[in-house]
Specification:
single chain; Immunoglobulin-like; disordered N terminus
Amino acid sequence: MKKSTILVILLMTAFWALGSAQTSAQTTLYPHNTDGSINYVNSAIKSDTTDAGIRKDSIFVFLRDSTYYFNGTLSNTGYSLTLKASDGAGRKPILRNVFTGVDDYYIMLQAGNNVYISNLYIDGEGPNPETGEWDATDIMDGALLQAATSGVEFFIDSSVVVNSAQVIVKTSSGARVVKLTNSVFANSGQLSADNIGNGRFIDVRNHATDTIIVKNCTIISGYDNVLRHYNANATSTSAEVQDIEFDHNTIYNYAGANGLFQLGNIVKSFKFTNNLLVDALSLGWDTTDALRYQEYVGLFDTTATGKYVMHLIEHVVYSAETPTFEVSNNVVAYDTAVTNFWKAYGVATPPYVDDVIAANATGSGTTFTTVDPFAFKKVPNAMTNVLYSYKANGYGYTVGTDTLDIDRRNVDFWLDSLDCSYTTANKAFVGTDKLPVGSTVWNSKITAVSDKSVKPTTFALNNNYPNPFNPSTVISFNLPVKSNVTLKVFNILGQEVYSAVKDFSAGSQSFNFNAKGLGSGIYIYTVKAAGVDGKNFSATKKMTLLK
């Protein structure tokens, strides 16, 4: 039997195995009913039952290039729920909260069971029905997406989630695992409705949680914490988290009113690696700000003169637990507009981590490196207008008006224009895995950096990263000698969909593979290398494209 025939049989076997694992029925939702009325998502899913009241299915597919609306909260009590985009090309489906004029905006999703979200645009504050634009006087709900039942899995992948008054992702009853990957989360906080002390990315301080994983995400614009875990009213066990991992994330434009990362009782491990923080904790370390300062008194480190320190990452120590800390290859930068604000008000630069984390952190590379300002390709404006207003109003949490706000941007920006890529020759931007720090979906480039101190001694093909991916991924490999390398990518039927050939020097090398124009599914990639020493290498792995 020919090798090509064997490859096709193996690929088809993998395809059939995948299909058999996804045997649940699924329903395609349409934006409008047959009479032209809006088919509200929360009502449509709630009513999707048989005459006997039994749920028909729990996988709901949204059409690309379409906009859907919520006019109430979606809850999945007693069944798992999958919300995903249809296969193929096209813009992510848009799911928007609609202003009711009665109760303002609702929380969009309260997970009463497992929830899996992929390839969607979720907007907690949709357009005003009359103006079609965002209106600061319309009040958003405090939370946008909530894991509301103990023991649930809450996954979001390859999505864009924007606009919440207080917190974007919240656990309120002890989730088993919260896993957020390859996604953009933006705009937490609403000054016209609340104060600068609200506006968090993740809040897990109310109940015990098993695992929190945030990988390859872009987290933009919030007034308060990126992660709020410590709870002054909690016991050492009521809000414990077993493991927390933040890896390869880009964090931009967070004021940090109550701190940036405030960790409570971690039982096993905290991993913070390969992250890029720009204008994060932009309010700085300010001992004259009584409202912010009270968050630190009696909990964290002090200086020699007894002043409590506002670090980027704080950890409240519980004597019963001895977690491990891996903190390495993270980069910090502040725009000159932010540092000028600090100078104007005598605010200090926040140190990186508290003494306990610094003394116990492990991992290769530098814990943090602060670099000079640099440019992302296209991001919203920094919130220096909010920072100056906060100070001008006497350090009061309530600083907002209907016009003072985050630079929110519209759906076109978030889906088509946002680009956090960068180009630099600074070696500090090289992560532990030799990829650029921050979210790798942006295809940032490190130029003129070569680490020849350690060379691979054998050929090796690594797993692509990220995986699943949309639409780009990095395929890396090790070369002990200079080699001519061929990359081929095949679809599940064994058909070649991509090929590239290039000469590489010895070391850790990679191809950037862009799957734009290809459909979702499993793909096989093969790397063949012909070394100048006459030795050859070939290896094959699989990857998953989710659009």
